[in-house]
Amino acid sequence: MTNATQKPVILWFRKDLRLADNHALQHACGLKRPVVPLYIREPDGHGTGPLGAAQCWWLHHSLTALRESLQTRGSDLLFLTGDPLATIRKLVDETGADTVLWNRRYDPAGISCDLRIEEELRKAGVDVSSYAGQLLHEPTRLLTGGGTPYRVYTPFWRALEKAEEPHEPVTPPHRISTPKSWPKSESLASWGLLPSRPDWAASFSEQWQPGEDAALRRLDDFIAETLKDYTQGRDFPAKPATSMLSPHLALGEISPARVWHATRGLSETIPRNNITHFRKELAWREFSYYLLFHFPHLPYANWNNRFDGFPWRFDSRLFSAWRRGQTGYPIVDAGMRQLWTHGWMHNRVRMITASFLIKDLLIDWRRGEAWFRDTLVDADPANNAASWQWVAGSGADASPFFRIFNPVLQGEKFDSDGRYVREFVPELANLEDKYIHRPFEAPQSALDKAGIVLGENYPNPIVDHAVARDRALSAYKAVADAA
Ligand code: FAD
Asked: Where does residue 397 rank: exposed (0-12), middle (13-18), buried (19+ CB within 10 A)?
């Protein structure tokens, strides 16, 4: 039985915007004392800092959904802005709380912020406890026989497969006790997380529904309808063949353990290889966080310092053409426009567009990482940095630099009928299949028939891929020879 006059517990939500499988929430409720759920908008330089613009759109809706779920359990969610330590101290004074709980985060800025807060609050006599939940396993758990962190994915995956199963997800509480009076909250609307004038996120809501309930529905639908063909379908961007859970996972609306366990004990209608393949992708997420934890410079420095002398070039005209989806290579343009339209891009096309920026344009991967961070609804400090370094060849267990995607052949292989290109590059919609990935080779009659005037309503290629490829290989060779 809870007494509202007891000292409350502050429950600080961060990248765990859910009630199910939330260990900090479960422990808060287990204390049988009033709970004050809190979300802090952390300014730049504090904690994990502000999110990119597209993820801010998601955050607004996710926090709205979380607040509604808390309200249906008799509780509420406080919105406060400021340095998290100062904000929590003030709230401790205001409410008389003597305990603060949270689920751990694993990005370097988040870790150092949390350590500082924990130390300062403890000094002030406040109890602090933190819980796991953002990953399948704590990043200190899996180590090589020599006790060092894995640097290569395959042995990491083998160790993960052999390890004890991730924790069983815990169920959400039915009721959450409330304090005698609620401290004053800022209004979420006042945070201005949604774009206006122009509302560039208008088409996001056609594609997405943020929030925990939507995440659980997406998981159920994926398992019921799509998982059975995951291996065969996952590389084809026109097919809805992947889970699209990434934005839900990025803000913790669903836990990876929940996703992992949902793929257990499935009927024989889902061939085993699809389940393993899907789990291996979850393990890439795990590996990215593992790398970020053990090598905290991952988001900004080459993991392999041989790349420190790489002769990057910067040309703002080319960079802008890439960002706007105006490169003249249809699969690259479709990907970059999917990113702008839906705040998301298919994994195969992320690899193609990233390879194009790094290898065809020789633009530093960090510029691409920053653009994705700002425009993806699933922007994730670990997955984004690790993936960009993987494509660049500068990362742990990376794709070798000499593997340079040919955007025409990639398009023809993975979007052979051009369905994906036609959706996102409508000016090419009427071009015959055989030219859809190489409009610059189409005869004038085919262009005329499709209403295309190259250089006017669709660009000529901004680089010649064959020339760019040779240039990239010599740049890389110069770095490799100098090492
Ligand atoms: P599914 O195929 O259904 O996979 C399930 C989950 O596994 C995903 O939701 C994701 O959490 C994880 N996952 C899948 N593929 C990968 C991968 N290659 N690396 C790490 N985790 C993976 N993913 C992000 O979540 N955030 C990012 O900011 C991000 N940036 C990327 C940048 C580049 C250049 C590249 C090449 C990849 C990036 N990825 C990123 C990885 C991957 O593209 C997305 O996770 C995936 O497309 C999400 O779609 P899904 O949820 O349908 O994936």
From this structure: middle
User: How far apart, in whole angstroms, are the C-alpha atoms of residue 427 and residue 422?
Assistant: 8
Measured in angstroms, how far is the CA atom of residue 80 from the centroid of ligand 1?
Answer: 31
Query: Is the beta carbon of 241 within 6 A of some atom in ligand 1?
Result: no
Could you tell me the pTM of the whole model? 0.97
Q: What is the CATH number of the domain that holds 312?
A: 1.10.579.10
Nearest CA residue ID for atom 34, ligand 1: 388
Residue nearest to ligand 1 atom 23, measured at CA = 383
Contacts of 26 (CB under 8 A, 6+ apart): 170, 173
> Are residues 220 and 344 located together in one domain of the fold?
no
Instruction: State how far the Cα of 302 lies from the Cα of 388, in Å rounded to an integer.
Output: 10
Looking at the fold, whether 265 and 159 belong to one and the same domain comes out as yes
Closest CA to ligand 1's atom 31: 384
**Same-domain check for residues 319 and 456:** yes
Which tokens hold the place of 41?
A: 């908008």
**Site of tokens 């609050």:** 121
Check whether residue 240 and residue 329 sit in a common domain: no
User: 81 with 118, same domain?
Assistant: yes
CA of 372 to the centre of ligand 1 (A): 12
**CA 362, CA 468: separation in Å to the nearest integer?**
9
In a domain, 430, yes or no: yes
CB atoms within 10 A of CB 22: 26
Phi, psi of 291 (to 5 degrees): -65, -45
Asked whether residue 251 falls in the same domain as residue 325, the answer is no
Q: Does residue 376's CB lie within 6 angstroms of at least one atom of ligand 1? A: yes
Residues 329 and 458 in one domain: yes
Separation of 323 CA from ligand 1 center, angstroms? 20
pLDDT, block means (10 residues), the chain with 483 residues: 79 98 98 97 78 96 98 98 97 97 95 96 98 96 96 96 95 95 97 93 96 98 97 97 98 98 89 96 98 95 93 97 98 98 98 98 97 97 96 87 94 98 98 98 98 98 98 90 75
